[in-house]
Amino acid sequence: MGGRPVRAGAKRTKDLTSPSPRAGLLLQEMTMAGLHELRFTEEKPLLRGQDAELENSDVFLPTVDTDWKEHDIETPYGLLHVVIRGSPKGNRPAILTYHDVGLNHKLCFNTFFNYEDMQEITKHFVVCHVDAPGQQAGASQFPQGYQYPSMDQLAAMLPSVVQHFGFKYVIGIGVGAGAYVLAKFALIFPDLVEGLVLMNIDPNGKGWIDWAAAKLSGLTSTLPDIVLSHLFSQEELMNNTELVQSYRQQIGSVVNQFNLQLFLNMYNGRRDLDINRPGTVPNAKTLRCPVMLVVGDNAPAEEGVVECNSKLDPTNTTFLKMADSGGLPQVTQPGKLTEAFKYFLQGMGYITHLKDRRLSGGTVPSASMTRLARSRTASLTSASSVDGTRPRACTHSESTEAMGQINHTMEVSC
Question: What is the pLDDT of residue 215?
Answer without folding.
Answer: 59
